């Protein structure tokens, strides 16, 4: 993501997990306390999705600028992450392991945390959020971009979740997102002219998240 991104391996449920860590300037240079921590999940690994996907990186960069320590990870079978694709089930366990690593080994236990995902990552993270809520440790906030509502059973999410979609999304039709969001009375922010990967619209994506942040 930038020259200060730290990439390394951690132990996961079925082997090593490759992660990338980014710190706000004030945290890295001055030792200041972060606003919190954030976990970012990437799109489908069987279709080229990695933690270096441009939307995943945009999410990470935006959250770093908002003051969060941000960690991304590659799903099973991607990059140096071991294991094989598990259709979003084992991947939930992996993301929980990454979050535990950040809160434990990296010393950020007790910090509020944010979950942000793109496409397939929204499906996995929605269920991670559900599990964390059930365990009594809910996320501070969720950010779902290109929510994969037409592909998988995305779990219900908190009312303050930021949901962003492109009206020209050819992978996940926007109507599917409306159908998922409507029973939850969940607002959906639409970027006109944006397709699934938000080509030439990433600056708008950043602005929406930044302007919506009120935690």
Automatic annotation (TrEMBL):
InterPro entries: AB_hydrolase_fold (IPR029058), Hydrolase_4 (IPR022742). This is Serine aminopeptidase S33 domain-containing protein. Residues 54-150 form the Serine aminopeptidase S33 domain. SUPFAM superfamilies: alpha/beta-Hydrolases (SSF53474).
């Amino acid at each position: 993501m930038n020259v200060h991104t730290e990439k390394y391996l951690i132990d996961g449920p079925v082997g090593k997990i490759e992660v990338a860590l980014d710190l706000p300037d004030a945290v890295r240079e001055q030792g200041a306390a972060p606003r919190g921590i954030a976990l970012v999940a990437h799109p489908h690994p069987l279709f080229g999705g990695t933690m270096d996907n441009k939307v995943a990186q945009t999410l990470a960069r935006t959250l770093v600028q908002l003051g969060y320590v941000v960690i991304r990870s590659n799903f099973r079978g991607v990059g140096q992450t071991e294991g094989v694709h598990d259709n979003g089930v084992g991947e939930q366990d992996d993301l929980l392991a990454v979050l535990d690593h950040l809160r434990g080994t990296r010393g950020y236990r007790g910090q509020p945390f944010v979950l942000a995902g793109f496409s397939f990552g929204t499906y996995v993270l929605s269920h991670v959020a559900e599990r964390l809520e059930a365990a009594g440790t809910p996320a501070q906030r969720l950010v779902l971009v290109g929510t994969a509502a037409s592909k998988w059973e995305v779990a219900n999410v908190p009312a303050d979740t930021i949901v962003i979609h492109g009206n020209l999304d050819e992978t996940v039709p926007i109507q599917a997102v409306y159908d998922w969001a409507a029973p939850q009375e969940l607002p959906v922010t639409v970027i006109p002219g944006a397709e699934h990967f938000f080509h030439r619209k990433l600056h708008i994506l950043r602005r929406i998240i930044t302007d919506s942040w009120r935690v």
